[in-house]
Amino acid sequence: MFKLARYLRYFKKEVIIGPFFKLLEAVFELIVPLVMASIIDIGIKNKDTAYVLQRGGIILLLGFMGLVFALICQYCAARASQGFGTMVRNDLYAHINSFSHAELDLFGTDTLINVLTNDLNQMQLAVAMLIRLVVRVPFLIIGAIVMSMILDLKLSVIFLIVAPLVSAVLYLIMKKSVPFYKARQKKLDKVSLITRESLSGARVIRAFSKQEHEIERFKRANDEVADIAISVGKISAFLNPATFAILNIAILTILWFGGIRVNEGSLTQGEVVAFTNYITQISLALVVFANLVVIFTKAAASAARINNVFETVPTLTDKAGDRSNLSSEELTDTGLDGYPLISFENVSFAYPGTDKYALEDINIDINEGEIVGIIGGTGSGKSTLVNLLPRFYDVSKGVIKIKGKPVQDFSIDSLRKIFGLVPQKAVLFSGSISDNIRYYKEDATMEEIKWAIEIAQAKDFVERLPNGYDTIIRQGGKNLSGGQRQRITIARALVRNPKILILDDSFSALDYATDANLREALKKNLKNTTVIMVSQRANTIKNADKIIVLDDGKVAGIGKHEDLYRSCHVYKEICDSQIS
Ligand SMILES: Nc1ncnc2c1ncn2[C@@H]1O[C@H](COP(=O)(O)OP(=O)(O)OP(=O)(O)O)[C@@H](O)[C@H]1O
Questions:
Q1: What was the pLDDT predicted at 92?
Q2: How far is CA 133 from CA 78, 83, 326, in A?
Q3: What's the 358 CA to ligand 1 centre distance in angstroms?
Q4: What is the structure's pLDDT at 121?
Q5: How many helices and strands (H and E) does the chain possess?
Q6: What is the C-alpha R_g of the chain?
Q7: pLDDT of the residue at 285
Q8: Looking at residue 321, what is its pLDDT?
Q9: Could you give the domains of the chain?
Q10: Is 420's C-beta closer than 6 angstroms to any atom of ligand 1?
Q11: What is the pTM of this model?
Q12: N or C: which end of the chain has fewer CB within 10 A?
Protein backbone atom coordinates (compact mmCIF):
# COMPACT_ATOMS: atom_id res chain seq x y z
CA MET A 1 0.00 0.00 0.00
CA PHE A 2 2.85 2.36 0.90
CA LYS A 3 4.44 1.90 -2.52
CA LEU A 4 1.31 3.27 -4.12
CA ALA A 5 1.27 6.16 -1.64
CA ARG A 6 3.97 7.80 -3.75
CA TYR A 7 1.23 8.82 -6.17
CA LEU A 8 -0.19 11.03 -3.43
CA ARG A 9 2.75 13.38 -3.78
CA TYR A 10 0.93 14.87 -6.78
CA PHE A 11 -1.94 15.78 -4.43
CA LYS A 12 0.00 17.26 -1.53
CA LYS A 13 -2.30 20.28 -1.31
CA GLU A 14 -5.44 18.13 -1.06
CA VAL A 15 -3.82 15.69 1.39
CA ILE A 16 -2.92 18.58 3.74
CA ILE A 17 -5.89 20.93 3.29
CA GLY A 18 -8.57 18.18 3.38
CA PRO A 19 -7.73 16.69 6.80
CA PHE A 20 -7.02 20.18 8.18
CA PHE A 21 -10.58 21.32 7.47
CA LYS A 22 -11.99 18.03 8.72
CA LEU A 23 -10.05 18.61 11.91
CA LEU A 24 -11.59 22.07 12.28
CA GLU A 25 -15.00 20.49 11.83
CA ALA A 26 -14.15 18.01 14.61
CA VAL A 27 -13.04 20.87 16.89
CA PHE A 28 -16.44 22.50 16.38
CA GLU A 29 -18.14 19.21 17.11
CA LEU A 30 -16.25 19.01 20.40
CA ILE A 31 -17.28 22.57 21.33
CA VAL A 32 -21.01 21.94 20.74
CA PRO A 33 -21.60 19.87 23.95
CA LEU A 34 -19.99 22.66 25.99
CA VAL A 35 -22.31 25.27 24.45
CA MET A 36 -25.22 22.89 25.10
CA ALA A 37 -24.13 22.62 28.74
CA SER A 38 -24.05 26.39 29.08
CA ILE A 39 -27.56 26.66 27.59
CA ILE A 40 -28.86 24.19 30.21
CA ASP A 41 -26.87 25.54 33.14
CA ILE A 42 -27.30 29.25 32.48
CA GLY A 43 -30.00 29.87 29.84
CA ILE A 44 -32.62 27.34 30.96
CA LYS A 45 -31.78 27.58 34.66
CA ASN A 46 -32.22 31.39 34.63
CA LYS A 47 -35.06 31.26 32.05
CA ASP A 48 -32.90 33.62 29.98
CA THR A 49 -34.41 33.29 26.47
CA ALA A 50 -31.98 35.78 24.93
CA TYR A 51 -29.06 33.70 26.23
CA VAL A 52 -30.61 30.48 24.90
CA LEU A 53 -31.17 32.08 21.49
CA GLN A 54 -27.70 33.57 21.39
CA ARG A 55 -26.06 30.23 22.32
CA GLY A 56 -28.43 28.39 19.98
CA GLY A 57 -27.23 30.74 17.25
CA ILE A 58 -23.64 29.82 18.08
CA ILE A 59 -24.51 26.12 17.73
CA LEU A 60 -26.11 26.86 14.35
CA LEU A 61 -23.08 28.84 13.27
CA LEU A 62 -20.76 26.05 14.38
CA GLY A 63 -22.92 23.58 12.47
CA PHE A 64 -22.90 25.72 9.35
CA MET A 65 -19.15 26.31 9.45
CA GLY A 66 -18.64 22.62 10.13
CA LEU A 67 -20.68 21.88 7.01
CA VAL A 68 -18.59 24.28 4.89
CA PHE A 69 -15.34 22.76 6.21
CA ALA A 70 -16.67 19.24 5.61
CA LEU A 71 -17.51 20.20 2.02
CA ILE A 72 -14.01 21.61 1.46
CA CYS A 73 -12.57 18.35 2.79
CA GLN A 74 -14.96 16.33 0.64
CA TYR A 75 -13.83 18.28 -2.42
CA CYS A 76 -10.15 17.66 -1.61
CA ALA A 77 -10.85 13.96 -0.99
CA ALA A 78 -12.69 13.63 -4.32
CA ARG A 79 -9.94 15.42 -6.24
CA ALA A 80 -7.13 13.42 -4.67
CA SER A 81 -8.84 10.02 -4.83
CA GLN A 82 -10.04 10.40 -8.43
CA GLY A 83 -6.71 11.86 -9.53
CA PHE A 84 -4.84 9.10 -7.71
CA GLY A 85 -7.03 6.45 -9.34
CA THR A 86 -6.58 7.92 -12.81
CA MET A 87 -2.80 8.11 -12.49
CA VAL A 88 -2.36 4.62 -11.10
CA ARG A 89 -4.77 3.22 -13.70
CA ASN A 90 -2.87 4.88 -16.56
CA ASP A 91 0.50 3.65 -15.31
CA LEU A 92 -0.84 0.19 -14.60
CA TYR A 93 -2.37 -0.03 -18.05
CA ALA A 94 0.89 1.11 -19.65
CA HIS A 95 2.80 -1.45 -17.57
CA ILE A 96 0.42 -4.26 -18.56
CA ASN A 97 0.99 -3.28 -22.17
CA SER A 98 4.71 -3.84 -21.71
CA PHE A 99 4.05 -7.45 -20.69
CA SER A 100 5.03 -10.24 -23.00
CA HIS A 101 2.64 -13.11 -23.63
CA ALA A 102 4.28 -14.97 -20.72
CA GLU A 103 3.15 -12.40 -18.13
CA LEU A 104 -0.27 -12.09 -19.73
CA ASP A 105 -0.64 -15.88 -19.49
CA LEU A 106 0.56 -15.78 -15.87
CA PHE A 107 -2.04 -13.30 -14.60
CA GLY A 108 -4.91 -14.06 -16.94
CA THR A 109 -7.19 -11.45 -18.46
CA ASP A 110 -9.79 -11.58 -15.68
CA THR A 111 -7.36 -10.90 -12.88
CA LEU A 112 -5.89 -7.99 -14.83
CA ILE A 113 -9.35 -6.54 -15.51
CA ASN A 114 -10.25 -6.90 -11.83
CA VAL A 115 -7.01 -5.26 -10.75
CA LEU A 116 -7.69 -2.34 -13.09
CA THR A 117 -11.28 -1.94 -11.90
CA ASN A 118 -12.25 -3.43 -8.49
CA ASP A 119 -8.84 -3.17 -6.86
CA LEU A 120 -8.26 0.35 -8.06
CA ASN A 121 -11.72 1.43 -6.91
CA GLN A 122 -10.91 0.01 -3.49
CA MET A 123 -7.72 2.04 -3.40
CA GLN A 124 -9.57 5.18 -4.48
CA LEU A 125 -12.02 4.69 -1.62
CA ALA A 126 -9.12 4.23 0.81
CA VAL A 127 -7.53 7.49 -0.38
CA ALA A 128 -10.81 9.36 0.08
CA MET A 129 -11.20 7.89 3.57
CA LEU A 130 -7.61 8.69 4.40
CA ILE A 131 -8.28 12.36 3.77
CA ARG A 132 -11.73 12.46 5.31
CA LEU A 133 -11.50 10.29 8.36
CA VAL A 134 -8.05 9.07 9.28
CA VAL A 135 -7.12 12.25 11.15
CA ARG A 136 -10.62 13.16 12.27
CA VAL A 137 -11.58 9.90 13.99
CA PRO A 138 -8.63 9.58 16.43
CA PHE A 139 -8.80 13.33 17.09
CA LEU A 140 -12.48 13.07 17.94
CA ILE A 141 -11.92 10.10 20.26
CA ILE A 142 -8.98 11.65 22.08
CA GLY A 143 -10.57 15.12 22.05
CA ALA A 144 -13.84 13.85 23.56
CA ILE A 145 -11.95 11.99 26.30
CA VAL A 146 -9.82 15.05 27.11
CA MET A 147 -12.86 17.36 27.13
CA SER A 148 -14.74 15.12 29.52
CA MET A 149 -11.67 14.83 31.76
CA ILE A 150 -11.61 18.62 31.92
CA LEU A 151 -15.30 18.59 32.84
CA ASP A 152 -14.97 15.99 35.60
CA LEU A 153 -11.94 13.81 36.06
CA LYS A 154 -13.68 11.29 38.31
CA LEU A 155 -16.66 10.72 36.02
CA SER A 156 -14.39 10.44 33.01
CA VAL A 157 -13.12 7.14 34.45
CA ILE A 158 -16.20 5.68 32.70
CA PHE A 159 -14.59 6.56 29.35
CA LEU A 160 -11.43 4.73 30.30
CA ILE A 161 -13.56 1.61 30.77
CA VAL A 162 -15.88 2.14 27.79
CA ALA A 163 -13.23 2.97 25.15
CA PRO A 164 -11.10 -0.19 25.70
CA LEU A 165 -14.30 -2.27 25.92
CA VAL A 166 -15.62 -1.01 22.57
CA SER A 167 -12.10 -1.36 21.11
CA ALA A 168 -11.94 -4.99 22.28
CA VAL A 169 -15.30 -5.73 20.63
CA LEU A 170 -14.08 -4.09 17.43
CA TYR A 171 -10.81 -5.98 17.53
CA LEU A 172 -12.52 -9.34 17.93
CA ILE A 173 -14.95 -8.63 15.10
CA MET A 174 -12.18 -7.40 12.80
CA LYS A 175 -9.95 -10.36 13.58
CA LYS A 176 -12.71 -12.74 12.53
CA SER A 177 -13.90 -10.83 9.47
CA VAL A 178 -10.69 -9.56 7.82
CA PRO A 179 -9.58 -12.94 6.36
CA PHE A 180 -12.97 -13.18 4.64
CA TYR A 181 -12.37 -9.96 2.72
CA LYS A 182 -9.20 -11.36 1.18
CA ALA A 183 -10.92 -14.61 0.22
CA ARG A 184 -13.81 -12.66 -1.28
CA GLN A 185 -11.52 -10.96 -3.81
CA LYS A 186 -10.38 -14.34 -5.17
CA LYS A 187 -13.97 -15.52 -5.49
CA LEU A 188 -14.84 -12.31 -7.33
CA ASP A 189 -12.11 -13.11 -9.88
CA LYS A 190 -13.82 -16.42 -10.51
CA VAL A 191 -17.20 -14.74 -11.04
CA SER A 192 -15.55 -12.38 -13.55
CA LEU A 193 -13.95 -15.30 -15.37
CA ILE A 194 -17.23 -17.17 -15.68
CA THR A 195 -19.11 -14.00 -16.70
CA ARG A 196 -16.60 -13.24 -19.44
CA GLU A 197 -16.52 -16.83 -20.66
CA SER A 198 -20.28 -17.13 -20.78
CA LEU A 199 -20.87 -13.78 -22.43
CA SER A 200 -18.17 -14.16 -25.07
CA GLY A 201 -19.10 -17.80 -25.64
CA ALA A 202 -22.86 -17.11 -25.66
CA ARG A 203 -23.30 -18.54 -29.17
CA VAL A 204 -21.48 -21.77 -28.35
CA ILE A 205 -23.46 -22.13 -25.14
CA ARG A 206 -26.73 -21.77 -27.07
CA ALA A 207 -25.56 -24.12 -29.82
CA PHE A 208 -24.94 -26.83 -27.25
CA SER A 209 -28.03 -25.89 -25.23
CA LYS A 210 -25.83 -25.42 -22.21
CA GLN A 211 -27.61 -22.36 -20.80
CA GLU A 212 -28.81 -24.28 -17.74
CA HIS A 213 -25.33 -25.60 -17.10
CA GLU A 214 -23.82 -22.12 -17.39
CA ILE A 215 -26.50 -20.56 -15.20
CA GLU A 216 -25.73 -23.23 -12.60
CA ARG A 217 -21.96 -22.61 -12.89
CA PHE A 218 -22.47 -18.86 -12.50
CA LYS A 219 -24.86 -19.38 -9.61
CA ARG A 220 -22.35 -21.58 -7.80
CA ALA A 221 -19.56 -19.02 -8.16
CA ASN A 222 -21.91 -16.21 -7.22
CA ASP A 223 -23.17 -18.15 -4.20
CA GLU A 224 -19.60 -18.60 -3.04
CA VAL A 225 -19.16 -14.81 -3.04
CA ALA A 226 -22.52 -14.39 -1.34
CA ASP A 227 -21.63 -17.03 1.29
CA ILE A 228 -18.49 -15.13 2.19
CA ALA A 229 -20.39 -11.85 2.28
CA ILE A 230 -23.03 -13.45 4.53
CA SER A 231 -20.37 -14.91 6.84
CA VAL A 232 -18.77 -11.48 7.16
CA GLY A 233 -22.19 -9.90 7.53
CA LYS A 234 -23.08 -12.25 10.39
CA ILE A 235 -19.91 -11.29 12.25
CA SER A 236 -20.22 -7.57 11.48
CA ALA A 237 -23.88 -7.64 12.51
CA PHE A 238 -22.66 -7.86 16.11
CA LEU A 239 -20.82 -4.60 15.74
CA ASN A 240 -23.64 -2.10 16.12
CA PRO A 241 -25.70 -3.91 18.81
CA ALA A 242 -22.56 -4.61 20.87
CA THR A 243 -21.28 -1.03 20.62
CA PHE A 244 -24.67 0.48 21.32
CA ALA A 245 -25.26 -1.86 24.28
CA ILE A 246 -21.97 -0.70 25.77
CA LEU A 247 -22.82 2.90 24.88
CA ASN A 248 -26.25 2.78 26.51
CA ILE A 249 -24.90 1.12 29.64
CA ALA A 250 -22.25 3.87 29.75
CA ILE A 251 -24.92 6.58 29.36
CA LEU A 252 -26.94 5.01 32.20
CA THR A 253 -23.81 4.91 34.35
CA ILE A 254 -23.06 8.55 33.55
CA LEU A 255 -26.62 9.56 34.41
CA TRP A 256 -26.48 7.54 37.61
CA PHE A 257 -23.11 8.75 38.88
CA GLY A 258 -23.56 12.14 37.20
CA GLY A 259 -26.80 12.56 39.19
CA ILE A 260 -24.95 11.82 42.42
CA ARG A 261 -22.20 14.32 41.43
CA VAL A 262 -24.88 16.94 40.60
CA ASN A 263 -26.47 16.41 44.01
CA GLU A 264 -23.03 16.76 45.58
CA GLY A 265 -22.72 20.04 43.70
CA SER A 266 -19.48 19.08 41.95
CA LEU A 267 -21.13 18.82 38.50
CA THR A 268 -23.89 20.72 36.74
CA GLN A 269 -26.83 19.20 34.84
CA GLY A 270 -25.53 20.68 31.59
CA GLU A 271 -22.16 19.03 32.15
CA VAL A 272 -23.88 15.65 32.56
CA VAL A 273 -25.58 16.20 29.20
CA ALA A 274 -22.22 17.21 27.69
CA PHE A 275 -20.78 13.98 29.10
CA THR A 276 -23.42 11.85 27.40
CA ASN A 277 -22.75 13.75 24.16
CA TYR A 278 -19.05 13.02 24.37
CA ILE A 279 -19.58 9.33 25.04
CA THR A 280 -21.90 9.13 22.03
CA GLN A 281 -19.27 10.87 19.92
CA ILE A 282 -16.57 8.44 21.08
CA SER A 283 -18.67 5.36 20.38
CA LEU A 284 -19.73 6.56 16.94
CA ALA A 285 -16.13 7.46 16.12
CA LEU A 286 -15.06 3.97 17.17
CA VAL A 287 -17.64 2.43 14.82
CA VAL A 288 -16.33 4.64 12.00
CA PHE A 289 -12.85 3.54 12.98
CA ALA A 290 -13.93 -0.11 12.60
CA ASN A 291 -15.26 0.64 9.13
CA LEU A 292 -11.97 2.32 8.33
CA VAL A 293 -10.14 -0.82 9.37
CA VAL A 294 -12.36 -2.83 6.98
CA ILE A 295 -11.78 -0.37 4.13
CA PHE A 296 -8.03 -0.33 4.69
CA THR A 297 -7.84 -4.10 5.02
CA LYS A 298 -9.60 -4.49 1.68
CA ALA A 299 -7.38 -1.76 0.24
CA ALA A 300 -4.26 -3.52 1.54
CA ALA A 301 -5.34 -6.72 -0.26
CA SER A 302 -6.03 -4.70 -3.41
CA ALA A 303 -2.75 -2.80 -3.11
CA ALA A 304 -0.90 -6.11 -2.86
CA ARG A 305 -2.52 -7.26 -6.11
CA ILE A 306 -1.79 -3.94 -7.84
CA ASN A 307 1.82 -3.98 -6.65
CA ASN A 308 2.18 -7.55 -7.78
CA VAL A 309 1.34 -6.42 -11.32
CA PHE A 310 3.60 -3.37 -11.06
CA GLU A 311 6.48 -5.44 -9.73
CA THR A 312 6.23 -8.04 -12.46
CA VAL A 313 9.07 -7.22 -14.78
CA PRO A 314 8.43 -8.16 -18.40
CA THR A 315 10.59 -11.17 -19.20
CA LEU A 316 11.37 -9.76 -22.62
CA THR A 317 14.22 -7.33 -22.32
CA ASP A 318 14.75 -4.69 -24.95
CA LYS A 319 18.50 -4.41 -25.23
CA ALA A 320 18.91 -2.68 -28.55
CA GLY A 321 18.05 0.93 -29.29
CA ASP A 322 14.80 1.52 -31.13
CA ARG A 323 15.31 1.79 -34.88
CA SER A 324 11.68 1.27 -35.85
CA ASN A 325 11.76 4.46 -37.91
CA LEU A 326 13.81 2.51 -40.46
CA SER A 327 12.20 0.47 -43.21
CA SER A 328 12.06 -3.29 -42.73
CA GLU A 329 14.55 -3.54 -45.61
CA GLU A 330 17.04 -1.43 -43.65
CA LEU A 331 16.25 -3.25 -40.44
CA THR A 332 17.08 -6.63 -41.90
CA ASP A 333 20.30 -5.32 -43.42
CA THR A 334 22.46 -6.69 -40.63
CA GLY A 335 25.72 -6.37 -42.56
CA LEU A 336 26.28 -10.11 -42.08
CA ASP A 337 26.63 -11.96 -45.37
CA GLY A 338 25.65 -15.44 -46.35
CA TYR A 339 22.93 -15.95 -43.74
CA PRO A 340 19.36 -17.01 -44.49
CA LEU A 341 16.63 -14.47 -43.72
CA ILE A 342 15.43 -16.53 -40.74
CA SER A 343 17.24 -19.32 -38.98
CA PHE A 344 16.15 -21.42 -36.03
CA GLU A 345 19.28 -22.93 -34.48
CA ASN A 346 18.69 -25.79 -32.01
CA VAL A 347 15.60 -24.03 -30.69
CA SER A 348 13.61 -25.56 -27.84
CA PHE A 349 10.78 -23.84 -26.03
CA ALA A 350 8.61 -24.61 -23.02
CA TYR A 351 5.80 -22.25 -22.00
CA PRO A 352 6.49 -20.51 -18.68
CA GLY A 353 5.24 -22.62 -15.81
CA THR A 354 5.35 -25.87 -17.81
CA ASP A 355 8.17 -28.37 -18.01
CA LYS A 356 7.21 -30.01 -21.29
CA TYR A 357 8.79 -28.57 -24.39
CA ALA A 358 6.20 -27.32 -26.89
CA LEU A 359 9.04 -27.21 -29.43
CA GLU A 360 12.18 -29.29 -29.26
CA ASP A 361 15.47 -28.98 -31.08
CA ILE A 362 14.20 -27.06 -34.09
CA ASN A 363 16.64 -26.29 -36.90
CA ILE A 364 15.10 -24.44 -39.84
CA ASP A 365 16.38 -22.00 -42.46
CA ILE A 366 14.00 -19.73 -44.36
CA ASN A 367 15.38 -17.76 -47.31
CA GLU A 368 14.35 -14.39 -48.61
CA GLY A 369 11.25 -14.40 -50.82
CA GLU A 370 10.34 -18.01 -50.00
CA ILE A 371 6.80 -19.13 -49.41
CA VAL A 372 6.94 -21.50 -46.48
CA GLY A 373 4.11 -23.75 -45.34
CA ILE A 374 3.96 -25.11 -41.79
CA ILE A 375 1.69 -28.07 -41.23
CA GLY A 376 1.09 -30.56 -38.44
CA GLY A 377 -1.59 -31.96 -36.19
CA THR A 378 -3.35 -29.85 -33.58
CA GLY A 379 -1.04 -28.99 -30.73
CA SER A 380 2.05 -29.92 -32.73
CA GLY A 381 3.58 -26.46 -32.10
CA LYS A 382 2.82 -24.53 -35.31
CA SER A 383 1.53 -21.35 -33.64
CA THR A 384 4.23 -21.57 -31.00
CA LEU A 385 6.89 -21.66 -33.72
CA VAL A 386 5.66 -18.51 -35.46
CA ASN A 387 5.03 -16.72 -32.15
CA LEU A 388 8.71 -17.02 -31.31
CA LEU A 389 9.69 -14.97 -34.37
CA PRO A 390 8.36 -11.55 -33.24
CA ARG A 391 9.46 -12.49 -29.70
CA PHE A 392 6.07 -12.95 -28.13
CA TYR A 393 8.06 -15.42 -26.07
CA ASP A 394 11.81 -15.95 -25.80
CA VAL A 395 13.24 -19.35 -26.67
CA SER A 396 14.25 -21.63 -23.79
CA LYS A 397 17.26 -23.01 -25.66
CA GLY A 398 19.02 -22.20 -28.90
CA VAL A 399 18.70 -19.03 -30.92
CA ILE A 400 16.54 -17.52 -33.66
CA LYS A 401 18.36 -15.23 -36.06
CA ILE A 402 17.30 -12.73 -38.70
CA LYS A 403 20.06 -12.49 -41.32
CA GLY A 404 22.54 -13.89 -38.81
CA LYS A 405 21.56 -11.50 -36.02
CA PRO A 406 19.80 -12.96 -32.94
CA VAL A 407 16.26 -11.60 -32.56
CA GLN A 408 17.15 -10.41 -29.05
CA ASP A 409 19.60 -7.95 -30.63
CA PHE A 410 16.79 -6.06 -32.36
CA SER A 411 14.68 -3.65 -30.38
CA ILE A 412 11.24 -5.22 -29.93
CA ASP A 413 9.57 -2.44 -31.94
CA SER A 414 12.05 -2.76 -34.82
CA LEU A 415 11.76 -6.54 -34.83
CA ARG A 416 7.97 -6.48 -34.90
CA LYS A 417 8.04 -3.97 -37.73
CA ILE A 418 9.71 -6.58 -39.91
CA PHE A 419 6.70 -8.87 -39.57
CA GLY A 420 3.13 -8.60 -40.71
CA LEU A 421 1.23 -11.02 -38.49
CA VAL A 422 -2.20 -12.46 -39.01
CA PRO A 423 -3.01 -14.28 -35.77
CA GLN A 424 -5.03 -17.45 -35.59
CA LYS A 425 -7.90 -15.65 -33.90
CA ALA A 426 -9.17 -12.78 -36.03
CA VAL A 427 -9.22 -9.87 -33.60
CA LEU A 428 -10.62 -6.56 -34.83
CA PHE A 429 -11.11 -3.34 -32.89
CA SER A 430 -14.07 -1.01 -32.71
CA GLY A 431 -13.91 1.60 -35.47
CA SER A 432 -14.36 1.53 -39.23
CA ILE A 433 -12.87 -1.04 -41.60
CA SER A 434 -10.30 1.57 -42.75
CA ASP A 435 -9.41 2.35 -39.11
CA ASN A 436 -8.73 -1.32 -38.57
CA ILE A 437 -6.48 -1.56 -41.63
CA ARG A 438 -4.64 1.60 -40.55
CA TYR A 439 -3.93 -0.05 -37.19
CA TYR A 440 -0.68 -1.37 -38.65
CA LYS A 441 0.12 1.75 -40.72
CA GLU A 442 -1.38 4.92 -39.33
CA ASP A 443 -0.65 7.01 -42.40
CA ALA A 444 -1.90 4.44 -44.94
CA THR A 445 -3.54 6.16 -47.91
CA MET A 446 -6.87 5.05 -49.30
CA GLU A 447 -4.98 3.54 -52.28
CA GLU A 448 -2.82 1.43 -49.95
CA ILE A 449 -5.89 0.32 -48.02
CA LYS A 450 -7.68 -0.66 -51.22
CA TRP A 451 -4.55 -2.45 -52.44
CA ALA A 452 -4.39 -4.52 -49.23
CA ILE A 453 -8.12 -5.20 -49.27
CA GLU A 454 -7.95 -6.36 -52.87
CA ILE A 455 -5.12 -8.83 -52.25
CA ALA A 456 -6.92 -10.10 -49.14
CA GLN A 457 -9.92 -10.90 -51.40
CA ALA A 458 -12.10 -8.58 -49.33
CA LYS A 459 -12.79 -5.94 -52.00
CA ASP A 460 -16.09 -7.41 -53.20
CA PHE A 461 -17.72 -7.72 -49.84
CA VAL A 462 -16.35 -4.43 -48.42
CA GLU A 463 -17.51 -2.41 -51.42
CA ARG A 464 -20.92 -4.05 -51.27
CA LEU A 465 -21.43 -2.91 -47.67
CA PRO A 466 -23.67 0.20 -47.49
CA ASN A 467 -20.89 2.27 -45.95
CA GLY A 468 -18.01 0.50 -47.69
CA TYR A 469 -14.65 1.17 -46.07
CA ASP A 470 -16.35 3.34 -43.44
CA THR A 471 -18.49 0.47 -42.16
CA ILE A 472 -18.24 0.39 -38.39
CA ILE A 473 -16.99 -2.84 -36.89
CA ARG A 474 -18.95 -3.74 -33.81
CA GLN A 475 -17.71 -5.71 -30.79
CA GLY A 476 -14.58 -7.17 -32.29
CA GLY A 477 -16.25 -7.84 -35.63
CA LYS A 478 -19.55 -9.43 -34.60
CA ASN A 479 -21.26 -7.80 -37.63
CA LEU A 480 -18.91 -9.63 -40.03
CA SER A 481 -18.71 -13.31 -40.87
CA GLY A 482 -15.72 -15.37 -39.72
CA GLY A 483 -14.23 -15.40 -43.23
CA GLN A 484 -14.80 -11.65 -43.67
CA ARG A 485 -13.09 -10.97 -40.35
CA GLN A 486 -10.15 -13.13 -41.38
CA ARG A 487 -9.76 -11.26 -44.67
CA ILE A 488 -9.76 -7.87 -42.91
CA THR A 489 -7.03 -9.08 -40.55
CA ILE A 490 -5.03 -10.27 -43.57
CA ALA A 491 -5.44 -6.84 -45.24
CA ARG A 492 -4.32 -5.18 -41.99
CA ALA A 493 -1.07 -7.16 -42.05
CA LEU A 494 -0.54 -6.50 -45.77
CA VAL A 495 -1.00 -2.72 -45.73
CA ARG A 496 2.58 -2.16 -44.70
CA ASN A 497 3.88 -4.51 -47.39
CA PRO A 498 5.79 -6.40 -44.69
CA LYS A 499 9.15 -8.01 -45.21
CA ILE A 500 7.89 -11.23 -43.64
CA LEU A 501 4.21 -12.14 -43.62
CA ILE A 502 3.06 -14.68 -41.04
CA LEU A 503 -0.34 -16.23 -41.64
CA ASP A 504 -1.26 -18.35 -38.62
CA ASP A 505 -4.01 -20.61 -39.90
CA SER A 506 -5.54 -17.48 -41.39
CA PHE A 507 -7.36 -19.18 -44.24
CA SER A 508 -9.28 -21.60 -42.04
CA ALA A 509 -12.62 -19.77 -42.47
CA LEU A 510 -12.20 -19.21 -46.21
CA ASP A 511 -13.78 -21.38 -48.88
CA TYR A 512 -11.38 -23.27 -51.14
CA ALA A 513 -11.79 -20.89 -54.11
CA THR A 514 -11.07 -17.76 -51.99
CA ASP A 515 -8.16 -19.59 -50.34
CA ALA A 516 -6.66 -20.31 -53.79
CA ASN A 517 -7.30 -16.77 -55.11
CA LEU A 518 -5.71 -15.26 -52.02
CA ARG A 519 -2.59 -17.37 -52.36
CA GLU A 520 -2.37 -16.45 -56.02
CA ALA A 521 -2.75 -12.73 -55.25
CA LEU A 522 -0.09 -12.91 -52.54
CA LYS A 523 2.34 -14.55 -54.95
CA LYS A 524 1.65 -11.97 -57.66
CA ASN A 525 1.71 -8.80 -55.54
CA LEU A 526 4.21 -9.50 -52.78
CA LYS A 527 7.26 -10.52 -54.77
CA ASN A 528 9.78 -9.46 -52.10
CA THR A 529 7.79 -10.70 -49.15
CA THR A 530 8.69 -13.93 -47.42
CA VAL A 531 5.44 -15.68 -46.52
CA ILE A 532 5.15 -18.13 -43.64
CA MET A 533 1.84 -19.88 -43.82
CA VAL A 534 0.58 -22.09 -40.99
CA SER A 535 -2.25 -24.30 -42.06
CA GLN A 536 -4.15 -27.44 -41.23
CA ARG A 537 -5.03 -27.85 -44.92
CA ALA A 538 -2.47 -29.64 -47.07
CA ASN A 539 -3.97 -27.99 -50.13
CA THR A 540 -3.15 -24.50 -48.83
CA ILE A 541 0.56 -25.15 -48.40
CA LYS A 542 1.03 -27.78 -51.13
CA ASN A 543 2.67 -25.38 -53.60
CA ALA A 544 4.92 -23.70 -51.04
CA ASP A 545 8.66 -23.48 -51.79
CA LYS A 546 9.31 -25.22 -48.51
CA ILE A 547 7.00 -27.19 -46.26
CA ILE A 548 7.86 -27.75 -42.61
CA VAL A 549 6.05 -30.66 -40.99
CA LEU A 550 5.74 -30.56 -37.21
CA ASP A 551 4.84 -33.50 -35.05
CA ASP A 552 4.53 -33.17 -31.29
CA GLY A 553 6.91 -30.19 -31.15
CA LYS A 554 9.57 -31.72 -33.39
CA VAL A 555 10.35 -31.28 -37.06
CA ALA A 556 9.14 -34.42 -38.83
CA GLY A 557 10.21 -33.26 -42.29
CA ILE A 558 11.21 -30.30 -44.43
CA GLY A 559 10.93 -30.16 -48.19
CA LYS A 560 8.62 -29.83 -51.15
CA HIS A 561 5.24 -31.51 -51.38
CA GLU A 562 6.27 -34.40 -53.67
CA ASP A 563 9.40 -35.25 -51.67
CA LEU A 564 7.64 -35.08 -48.36
CA TYR A 565 4.72 -37.10 -49.59
CA ARG A 566 7.18 -39.83 -50.46
CA SER A 567 9.55 -39.57 -47.48
CA CYS A 568 7.58 -38.18 -44.51
CA HIS A 569 4.89 -40.48 -43.16
CA VAL A 570 3.37 -37.73 -40.95
CA TYR A 571 2.90 -35.50 -44.00
CA LYS A 572 1.57 -38.36 -46.09
CA GLU A 573 -0.93 -39.23 -43.37
CA ILE A 574 -2.16 -35.61 -43.23
CA CYS A 575 -2.51 -35.41 -47.04
CA ASP A 576 -4.21 -38.80 -47.33
CA SER A 577 -6.64 -38.05 -44.51
CA GLN A 578 -7.70 -34.88 -46.32
CA ILE A 579 -8.17 -36.55 -49.68
CA SER A 580 -10.34 -39.28 -48.20
N1 LIG B 1 -0.03 -20.08 -23.62
C2 LIG B 1 0.26 -21.37 -23.46
N3 LIG B 1 0.64 -21.82 -22.25
C4 LIG B 1 0.96 -23.12 -22.06
N5 LIG B 1 0.94 -24.05 -23.05
C6 LIG B 1 0.57 -23.66 -24.28
C7 LIG B 1 0.21 -22.30 -24.54
N8 LIG B 1 -0.11 -22.20 -25.87
C9 LIG B 1 0.05 -23.44 -26.38
N10 LIG B 1 0.45 -24.31 -25.44
C11 LIG B 1 0.77 -25.73 -25.64
O12 LIG B 1 1.81 -25.82 -26.59
C13 LIG B 1 1.57 -26.87 -27.50
C14 LIG B 1 1.62 -26.36 -28.94
O15 LIG B 1 0.54 -25.46 -29.13
P16 LIG B 1 0.32 -24.64 -30.47
O17 LIG B 1 -0.76 -23.68 -30.24
O18 LIG B 1 1.62 -24.13 -30.93
O19 LIG B 1 -0.15 -25.81 -31.45
P20 LIG B 1 -0.67 -25.70 -32.94
O21 LIG B 1 0.09 -26.69 -33.72
O22 LIG B 1 -0.65 -24.30 -33.41
O23 LIG B 1 -2.16 -26.19 -32.75
P24 LIG B 1 -3.47 -25.79 -33.57
O25 LIG B 1 -3.31 -26.30 -34.94
O26 LIG B 1 -4.53 -26.52 -32.83
O27 LIG B 1 -3.60 -24.32 -33.48
C28 LIG B 1 0.24 -27.48 -27.13
O29 LIG B 1 0.49 -28.65 -26.40
C30 LIG B 1 -0.42 -26.45 -26.22
O31 LIG B 1 -1.15 -27.07 -25.22
A1: 93
A2: 13, 19, 56
A3: 7
A4: 92
A5: 22, 12
A6: 35
A7: 86
A8: 61
A9: 4-311 (1.20.1560.10), 328-579 (3.40.50.300)
A10: no
A11: 0.73
A12: C
